[in-house]
Amino acid sequence: MLRSILFLAAAGVVIFFLWRRFGPKTVDTRHERSPALPSPGADLSNVVARDVRLWAHLPQSLKDTLLSRVREFIERIPFEGAHGFEVTDDMRIVIAAQACIVTLGHDDYPFDDLHGITLHPDEFVVEESEEDEETGVVTEGYRAISGQSQGSDRIVLSWRDVADSQTRHEGYNVVIHEVTHFLEHSHPGGDRAARAALEAAYESLCDAVDRGEETLLDPYGAEDLTEFLAVAAEFFFERPADLRERHPTLYVLLRDSFRLDPATWQATSS
Ligand SMILES: [Zn+2]
What we know:
The protein has one domain: Collagenase (Catalytic Domain) (3-Layer(aba) Sandwich). Helices cover 40% and strands 18% of the residues. By secondary structure, the chain is α/β, with parallel strands linked by helices. It is globular. Helix 1 (44-51) packs across helix 3 and helix 8 (240-246) packs across helix 9. Zinc ion is lined by residues 22, 177, 181, 227, 230.
């Protein structure tokens, strides 16, 4: 599921290389602010049930918690459309719902430090520099990505990729990915044993990728430990039964961290 992205080197040399959709922490510019609150009467539960695939899998008690948390999220977090992109109430609800699903196992609202969400209509270009580990040569350039988490301050998303992840079942979810980055920044935790288990799972993915094996987890997770955690979180929520079967230790680690057990959730029609 890697996507080929055009990378423009500063020297004018055009290099093609493979890169997944998510990027490092850089700063985007020029946003247009959307209204802070959804219009009166916006029907949260209808939008969530219609547009958020994970909704059907949630136990009823978590559905109730989710709706109140989504309400709080969209009341407190300003959304901005980049370059005049119009952010609708439905878009805010869909993004808020997925962000809040990640938090359902914890009692506290964890987004106090999140100052806003910026939404682009599609993939967006960021400037970056990359250092070759062996030669030390730094290449400056631009890269198109679908999401980024800027520390514990702002999450930037491509709406097309948010919508895409609702129609796919490949373990891909850009909102869950970026929210996991945000939470890792704003709520660092985990004891030494958990850290060691996470590192072991990461090393095992790196080895499998090096050997050219087919992996359940997106090989982008071999990028570094932070990306591994974000990719693993996507699979934990999107394909929990597969993750539990193929990587039981990693599944238990995430289950204890998120305090949720999505492999036991059963899809219902309501
Ligand atoms: Zn990432």
